Write the structure tokens for this entry.
Amino acid sequence: MEKQTIVSGIRASGSLHVGNYLGALKQFVELQNQGHHCYFFIADLHGLTTPFEPKKLSKDTLDVAATYLAAGIDPKKSVFFLQNHILEHATLAWIFNCLLPLSELERMTQYKDKAKQHKENINAGLLTYPALMAADILMYKPTAVPVGEDQVQHVELARVVARKFNHKFGKTFPEPHTFLRKPLRIMSLSDPAKKMSKTGDEALLLDDEPKEISRKLKKAVTASESGKASAGVENLFLLLEHFGKQEQIAYFRDAQRNNSLKFSELKETLAKEVAGYFAEFRAQKKALLEQPEYLAEILGEGARKARTVAQSTLQEIKHRIGLL
Ligand code: TRP
């Protein structure tokens, strides 16, 4: 693949589970290690659009930063920073706000969903969220933007903004491609009919200690409904495919075919593999969180790199639109 310039924002919302890891983080690390030019940032300004608590916001931000670094984001290879550190994002978002028709913003699915969810706080930021996201993206003139399904509409809108701007003020932005992350169906351990989310014992969190992983897997639902192959068991196999070894999968699939599959054995093996897979991650993350000054230094260095590009893009844009 030709070298791409890649931009993506990360929501800071506390602990991640193995589904989040496989669906996003792992792919970021792979893109980085393939040598693409990557900008990854924590979208803390977007975090203000839904109700938040200041202490928790700072804590979650540091936690997510440590998570991404511990999982393999290398600040020497990727530009890794906090959105709020680059003031240019907010300025460009304002410029895009003045370019985007209200009607385009009002028909965004996420806005409609969140407005319904947070009836007591339908703030203007919730509506103009995609203008800030378009600014995040176009600032770095990327060729590709990896996002989950729920963000595709916003990347589309960023393309519309790019087109509009280019048409009105002259060619400035390339239209970035959406780079859809594979929708992975990692299901809840306690209710395999729904996707894994972060609540209770249904999720394996990246931070879980081996004991906790074993405990949750032991409780994982394996019962089949009305003779159908059990979704819970298939989910365990799916996890083993990602975190286990080929011969383990072959061994348990064989047992399944011979009707001699022991769920407890499958769960024990899986627990061991998941715990081992994230052992290094847990140690790294702990070490990072114990050195907040070092974390701040990494984020500061990332911001310096991002700022150089952002300042130059904003300069070009101001010139195009006649801002002195
Ligand atoms: N809105 C994205 C999400 O909720 C996060 C995000 C903010 C983002 N700015 C971005 C993603 C720019 C890609 C590009 O996940």
